[in-house]
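In response to reviewer comment 3 from the previous cycle, which asked for concrete evidence that the modeling workflow produces usable outputs, we include below a single protein chain processed end to end. The sequence was submitted unchanged, and the resulting C-alpha cells are shown without manual editing.
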Amino acid sequence: MEFGIYTLADIETNPQTGKTVSAKKRIQEILAAAKLADELGLQIVGVGEHHRLDYAVSSVPVILSAIAQQTKNVQLISTTTVLSTVDPVRLYEDFATLDLLSDGRAEIMAGRGAFIESFPLFGYDIKRYDELFEEHLELWQRLNKEERLSWHGNFRAPLENAEISPRATKEIPTWIGVGETLESARRAGRFGTGLALVILGGNPQFFLPLVEAYKLEFIAAKHPIENYKVAITGHGFFAEDGQKARDEFYAYYRNYWGNVNKQHGMAFHMDREDFEKATSPNTPLFVGSPDEIVEKILKQHELFEHTRFLAQLDIGGQPFETVARSIELLALEIMPKVNQYIK
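The workflow returned the following C-alpha cells.
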C-alpha cells in the first residue's frame, strides 16, 4: 500500500495558544511537511485548493511545483482540483509543466470540493455542476492523450487542431475524489479514473456501495484492469500512546469542525464523549497509537482492498512540531507494519 499526506491549507487559530499563523507561514510549513514526508519514505504529498481568506492555497500547481524542487520521490497530487471551475486546457498545461519539473511525479484528483466559492469567482453556474464536471473531465482525458486535438463543447470555446504544450512525460494519473455520492463513484468507473474515498465520519461500511458501484462501472466500460485503483483519505493524528493522541487532538479537532460548520452557517457542538465515540475502533477517524491506526487501516483494507492511504494531519491550528510527529509515525511505524500484513 502507498502512504502519503495531504493538506487543504486551512488557516486556523491554535486553540491552545490563541495564535494564528500567516498565509506565508502556513505555506512554509506545508513545504517543510512535504520535504519531511519525502525524506522519511512516504510516497505521496497532496495539496488542495480553496479560494477563501481562511485557506492559504488557491494555486495548487504553484505549491506543488515548489514542493517538487525540495523533494525527490513523492508523487505530487492535487487534493482536490475543483474540475467544474477550471479550464481543462490550462489545467493540463499547468500539470504537464509540474510533471516535467518533477520528473514525472504529477497527478490530479478531481472533485467538487468542500465549498462553492470558485463557481461565482470564475463565472460558472453551480446549477450546472454535473454537466461542467463531465465535460471538463472528458476534455481533460483527451488533452492527457493527444498533443493536437479538435473539440467542441457547451461551456468553452471550441478547439480546432489546437497544439497542447508542453507534453507531460506520460499520461498524468487521474483520480476522482468522492464523499458520499453514488453517481460520483459511478462516474469514476465510467471514465476509468482512480477512486479516492473521502471518509470523514460515519461507519466505513456505509462507503462500500461506492466502491462496488465504481468497480461495476469500471468493468462494464472495459477499462484496463491495471487502471483500477482505490484510495482512502481521512483525518489523522498519531502519538506513541493512544490516549495521549486523543487528549492532544480533541481541542484541534473540535476547533476544525467548529470553524468549518461556521463557514457553512451551521451550528456545531462536540463534547469529549462525542469525540471519544468518533475515535473508537470502528470509526474512520485515524487518531491513536501506531498499532491502533494499523488495525483501523487493515480493517478498512478488508472492506475496500485499497492500495493507497492518505492522511490529512494538519487541521485545527496545530503547531508544525505536532504535525511532524504524526508524519514520522506514519512513515516509520504505521506504513511498514501495514505493508508487512498485506503483502
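Residues 2-342 form a domain with the TIM Barrel fold (CATH 3.20.20.30). We consider this sufficient to address the reviewer's concern, and the full set will be provided in the supplementary archive.
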